Amino acid sequence: MSSANAGKRLFNFSPGPAVLPVSVLERIRDEMLCLPGAPASILEISHRSPQFIAIQERAQQRLTRLLNIPSDYEVLFLQGGARLQFSMIPMNLLRGQAGPAQFVLTGSWGKYAQAEALKEGQVEIVYNAKATNYDRLPSASDLKLSPNAAYVHITSNETIQGVQFQSDLDSPAPLVCDSSSDFMYRPMDISKYGLIYACAQKNAGPAGVTVVIIRKDLLERSNDSLPGYLNYKNQASEGSMWNTPPTFAIYTMGLVAEWLEETIGGLSKMHAINQQKASLVYSVIDKYPQFYQGHAQPESRSLMNVTFRFADEDTEKRFLKGAAAVGLDSLKGHRSVGGIRASIYNAMPMAGAQALADFMTDFATKNG
Ligand code: PMP
Q1: Which domains does the chain have, with CATH numbers?
Q2: pLDDT in tens, 290-332
């Protein structure tokens, strides 16, 4: 790192846009004026240029290898964030279907997705953790999933509450998963899903691109009357280039995927690192359970977003101030739930999780 402000970087626990690997940022810096093999910057070349087409293809190939995506799936790079998917999914997969969309509600984002689906068709809530303030996941026996549903929607990681499915669910209807805040944190069995979507700006790159992995047979549900941009079948047949794609975001996501493959060594290794980082932080919460009041039930905890609060707001303010003083940034919880949220995505280095755990131990010893 040699740019003027590089030394001012703190450990960034932001929920998104979020931390990126330093080596990726350095590579972007080094390639910014002129992309290797191109006559200009990534910000300046045409999306139809051979250089950009190669970048897009390489990004798709890396995701396909990392997640072991079977050949009967399409990988789309879209815009509009995960929120547009809240609408596109029911527009394409619910409209005209006999069965309802079944929703498993484990937190705020699932609720938002469900509200958008309701505008399109019939929705059934098959699990709702509202009564316990979204602190837990369902057990397999809690879920009455129907083979006649148009699809079943889950949010694999609820970013605000910090609850996360740690394995792939079995569903008799196509399983649709919002993986925005845990995309590529572990290997997945893609064949268990009909559609997986993720905005990039948490675990996979910058804001601007949203990945949609869709089983090809589901493309047949997209009705020709849908607006072109919003039609998955159209996007697939146009290779995600029906309009100008977010070239810089796709380029950066490709570099993050390269980092995952070549520097980390794949998603099993990434998963082991993520488990280690999260356990550093959770072990402090477990050591001082009266002081650090964890939001998620232990068996539903997220490896990506660690959420907890204190008995009073004054302690929270002092915690945030003390954390900032030792270089730990963006730890404030979401405005809707308060408290503290430490987002420890793939690119958060082990040293960052360790620094947070050390600060938490010190703070509890002095204030607990
Ligand atoms: N789903 C989840 C799980 C999220 O965390 C977020 C963003 N925080 C969204 C959806 C919405 O993403 P976007 O802002 O890209 O629309």
Answers
A1: 26-264 (3.40.640.10), 266-367 (3.90.1150.10)
A2: 999 999 999 999 999 999 999 999 999 999 999 999 999 999 9
Which amino acid residue places its CA nearest to atom 12 of ligand 1? 82
What's the Rg (C-alpha) of the chain?
Answer: 21
DSSP-derived letter for residue 235 is H
| Short-list 161, 174, 118, CA closest to 305 | 161
Give residue 223's Cα distance to chain centre: 28
The DSSP annotation for 166-220 comes to -SPPP-SS-EEEE-TTTTTSS---GGG-SEEEEESTTTTS-TT-EEEEEEGGGGG
CA 210 to CA 185: how far, in whole Å? 16
User: Could you tell me what percent of the chain has a pLDDT over 70?
Assistant: 99
Structure tokens at 245: 């794609």
User: Would you state the pLDDT for residue 2?
Assistant: 61
Rounded to the nearest integer, the mean pLDDT of the chain is: 96
Name 293's bridge partners.
Answer: 309
- Residue 362 carries which side chain, given as an amino acid letter? D
Cα 34 to Cα 38: distance, rounded to the nearest angstrom: 7
- Check the CA dihedral 133-286-179-48 and report its sign: positive
For ligand 1, atom 9: residue with the closest CA: 82
State how far the Cα of 292 lies from the Cα of 38, in Å rounded to an integer. 52
Q: Which of 106, 159, 185 to mutate to test the pocket of ligand 1 (most atoms within 8 A of CB)?
A: 159
Cβ(256)–Cβ(21) below 8 Å: yes
Report the predicted TM-score, pTM, of the whole model to 2 decimal places. Answer: 0.98
Q: What distance in Å separates the CA atoms of residue 116 and residue 197, rounded to the nearest whole number?
A: 15
Under DSSP, the state recorded for 229 is G
User: Distance between CA atoms of 350 and 119, rounded to whole angstroms?
Assistant: 43
- Annotated catalytic, 202? yes
